[in-house]
Amino acid sequence: MKKKINVVCIGGGTGLSQLLSALKDDVYKSIKNLSALVTTFDSGGSTGILRKIYEIPAIGDIRNCLLALSDIENYVKKAFQYRFKGKGLKNHPLGNLFLVALMETQGNFEKAVKIASKILKIKGEVIPITTENIHLGAIFENGKKIIGEDKIPEYALQRKVKIKNLFLYPKKPKPTPLALKRIREANFILIGPGSLYTSILPNFLIEKISEEINKSKAIKIFILNLLTQPGETDFFKASDHLKEFLRISGIKKIDVVLASKTKPKKKFLKKIKEENKEIVEIDKKNLEKLGVKVIEKDLALVKDTYFKHSPKKLKKVLSSIFKKFML
Hints:
Blueprint: E1 5-11, H1 13-23, E2 31-38, H2 45-54, H3 60-69, H4 74-81, H5 94-106, H6 109-119, E3 125-128, E4 135-140, E5 145-147, H7 151-159, E6 163-169, H8 177-185, E7 188-191, H9 196-200, H10 209-215, E8 219-223, H11 238-249, E9 256-260, H12 266-274, H13 284-288, E10 293-297, E11 300-303, E12 306-309, H14 311-326
Parallel strand pairs: 1-2, 1-7, 2-3, 7-8, 8-9, 9-10
Antiparallel strand pairs: 4-5, 4-6, 11-12
Helix pairs in contact: 1-3, 1-14, 5-6, 8-10
C-alpha cells in the first residue's frame, strides 16, 4: 500500500479508545490523517457534574481519546486518568479538570482540545462532534421521553422497555466544521465499537454528519461490539445492531462488518451472564442480506474478567483491509 490513507473513526467510550490505540502507530507511516470524531453527549459521573457547573459539552470521552493517541510517558497518562478520592473532588479524573481549566483560560472547547493535543503529543487528532452543550434524549416503546445519556439505559432496565428512537436537546446542533472536512477527505470511515444508542448513534443525529458520510466514497466499516449491553442491546444479534444503526443514523450503506469470533472460557461466560450480558451472536446470513461483507476474526483480548477489543489484533485485521481496498 503505497498511498497514505485518511482514516476517520466515529464513536465514544472505551471502544473508540481501543480502536485509536490500534491505529496510532501507523500515523505518519501508512496513515496520513487519523481523525477521531468523538461524542460529546455523556451526562453521568464526573463529566455530568462538570457539565452542570460549567455548561459545557461532555469531556470524558475526549480525555480518553486524547490519552489513547498520546505519546507521553505512561506515568503521566496514569496521572491524567487518576480519580481524586478526597471530598469535593471525589471521582473527578485529573484529565477532566485539566480540560475544563483549558476551556476556561482559552475561551472555548475547540481551542482547549487543540492545546491539550499539543501538550499530550498525540498522533492524529481528536475532534469533538459538536462544540455545543447538547444532551441526548430517547423515546421508548411506551411513549416515555427521557433526556440524559446516563438515564436512558437506567430507565430501560427499570421499566424493561426498549428504546424506540433518539433525539438531541436542544435540537439541530451544528457539527464541528473540521469533522465534516475530515469526512470529505476520508478513504476509510470506521464506526464503533461502543454503546450503540448512547455512544455511537448520537453522532449521526447531528445535521450533515450522515449526509456527508452518504456522499463519501470512503469504505465504511462497522466494528461490532463483543457483548450485548443491558438496557440498550439486550438479546441483539449482530444483524440487529446493524439494522438499528442504519434505521436511526440515516446511513444508507455499510461496506464491511468486522466481527469477533473470540471464544472466552466458561468461567468468563458465567461472569457475563451474571452481569446480564451475552456474547453477540454473529448471524452472518442476515448480515449479508443487508448488503455487507462480513469479516470474522479473533479480535478480543481475554484476561481474567477483562474482555475488550485487542488493539494489537484490531491493527492486524484493519491493516489487511486497508491494503486490500487501496491496491
